[in-house]
Input
Amino acid sequence: MPSDSNFPLEQRIRAPFVKGAGLGKRPRFADDGWDGDFTQRAQNAAGNDVIDVVGTDALDNRLVAGELYRPVLTPIRCQIQANGKLATTNPFFVNNNDTTPIEIAYMTCTFSVAAGSTSTGNVVKDPVGVAPGGGSTCMTGTFNLNATANTEQIATLVGKRGTPALVLGPGEQLTLKISAVASLAGLFVTVWVRPRQAISIAQYHRHANGDIATGVMYLNILPGTVIRGVAMRWGTAANNAGTVTMDITKDASGTAPGAGTSILTAAQSVKGTANTTVYPALAASAATLTMAVGDCLSLKTAGTLTALADLVVTVFFAAGPPQHIVVGMSSWDAAAVDRTVFQADNNYYQVVDCWQVWSTVSTSNTQRLTKDSGVVAPGAGTGLQTDNTNTGILTSGTINTPIGSLLLTAVSTKPTLVLGPGDCLGLKNAGTTASLAGVFTSVLLRKM
Output
């Protein structure tokens, strides 16, 4: 093990045990760790044999009880479909005020239309008080945004575990910087983080003032989901003379976005100091903070939003069922345009459930979830639903009333519901789509 002048060998050997001995928290070492390709074992209760506990193998696979183990990571996504909605700086996530930070583990990028000229993308971490894109890079190199469309790019992270640029502390923000937007469209960047308090999160991010409006930011499809925290941040504060606030409401099925019950003790003013993260207090009632299947969370605006820009809101949930994540996708920037909903990291995922809601109907349009592998365009892959003879969910149903999907059920088709590394989930539109608006899609995935 490498030496450290501040912590001699004796202290390093004792480090894993100091907390258990009542001597405080163990030191953190940048190069801390056992040798690779090892197995840690324990004596069995009878004392006549040993049991594999944890370890790694020669391929750096993690082992638990001698078996391969792949942890569930949380996907944080920056998805901006329309070319006109992209900016050179696109903040998309703000961290909560948890005392334990989260760590970036993996990053990917894809897009459906290339920039058409030289253009690069870079994910940066913005500390509190730093304007969007003004922080430190999380990558070595950049994404090539003028490369082949619908092709996964995997980032090289800027360092190993514990590197400051890869650790998000309380209130820190992630921003996607683009050197030139040009003709770029269908951009989908995923930052996978090691979870600390939750597997699923709800995200709302809008760069331009004119795009900030009341709307659904999460559709719940897991019974008993509990809200545990909210973080908000803006790059330019509202400056209207009157009150300007953001609230988050829990809207039961059939309730218009923003017309439900607030999950906060008070709406949050967005006229405060820019680039400073705030953590609005949650409502006291446990019932208010517990979501039923079909409940939505909506961001509710109040007042004249003059000047407000680069608004980012994140809602954090208590951990749900093990190995499961819910990914939500708002179609705020082009409701009826085919798009990517999710892209797998280097793990395998099974599609378990899919729900949708909309605020304005389209009487003859369907939306279908698809599995898009390789260089297949968003929505052009294999359909995953049996609704209406595998054409998807007809979006002529009652507004603000979530509807679940019927996934493929035959044994011969079930493998289609499994996403391999790099596979995408797409959303395909078919029919007349002019009036469709306020669409939100939630998909439940199980890591295999």
Observations:
- Residues 25-30 have pLDDT under 50 and may be disordered.
